[in-house]
Amino acid sequence: MRPPQLSIVLPCLNEALTLSKCIVQARQALEDAHLSGEIIVADNGSTDGSREIALAHGARVIPVEQRGYGYALQAGISAARAPYVLMGDADCSYDFGHAGRFVALLDEGYDLVMGNRFKGGIKPRAMPWKNRYIGNPLLTTIGRILFSCPVGDFHCGLRAFRKEAFDRMDLRTGGMEFASEMVIRATLLNLRIGEIPTTLSPDGRNRPPHLRPWRDGWRHLRFMLLFSPRWLFLHPGFALMAAGTVLGGLILPGPVALGRLTLDVHTLLFCAIAVLIGFQSVQFAILTKVFAIRSGLRPREPAFERAMRWITLEAGLILGALMVSAGLGLSLGAVLQWNAHQFGPLSPAETLRWVIPGGLLLALGCQTVLGSCFLGILGLKLSK
Description:
With 384 residues, this protein is an alpha/beta fold. It folds into 2 domains: 6-227, Spore Coat Polysaccharide Biosynthesis Protein SpsA, Chain A (Alpha-Beta Complex); 229-378, no CATH class. It has 14 helices and 9 strands. α8 packs parallel to α9 and α13 packs antiparallel against α14. The radius of gyration is 28 Å and the shape is elongated. The two termini are 41 Å apart. 39% of the residues are buried.
């Protein structure tokens, strides 16, 4: 018996009505493409006889106790014996007859081949309008912008990949985010990604799908944003810091008149708040990226690691101490100014020009010290 060339993996949770049709179609696709293969049903706790149906139709059944789309697929893919894997839903919405076209691109050297439903055709009632015209196009556009990913349908469930490439991706999510994580990780690892048109048909179930459009769409969006701290935290943080610093620097010597509008210490206070929030955002971006790399969610980046050699616990403690000292100095200047007035009433327009920068430097110094300590904790080398 020839070793399998392609493993077709079907995640399954109570798909008794459609599972047998998918298995038959998948087996026919293998025959039509002259491929030796196996069909794996990753069963996520079905109670409707899906396991028995899969076994009766000659599929391998992999029981998966932990509930979740990603957990089911990871278990099924890990059990695959072929060098190529094709995954697709077990609801008759995807055409497994396209298996040969996916394998042809893998043979050409692609690591991941995505289906594109928008190019292949979406049949009537196959996709809710909010998914077709809002959710999927929006999430795909965001993914392409954030990660420069060459994929036109980020969440197509019919996709094929090399088993060794999947192992290199080292995917960690267990829910619907699994689909996004696969594309993002493949892009970050510079894997070769291809795409072919595929069709989407109405699923053959007599119950609502497991997918919850708004909830799962938000989960995908949240995952992509957290996976890209540069766009979510770093750039906005630097922008806030720059705006607050420039405008605050103009106001610090004295009021600034803009026609009939005068910017004074009240605006200076909001400039300080912008700098503080921006600094926290930049700091969080750095901490998030360090955590993502350390936990294996993101691949290592030599340029980032070289930069991090300068951002050490000791450097942070020194910088934080200097900021705190400067803040205390400005605060002391405000107290001396008060003393010069016999600790009586003061002009807020004068005093706050000392107090606001002093308080800002005190806060930034403390934030720098605390962030550096947490960065040091993330950098600890722990035994496994």
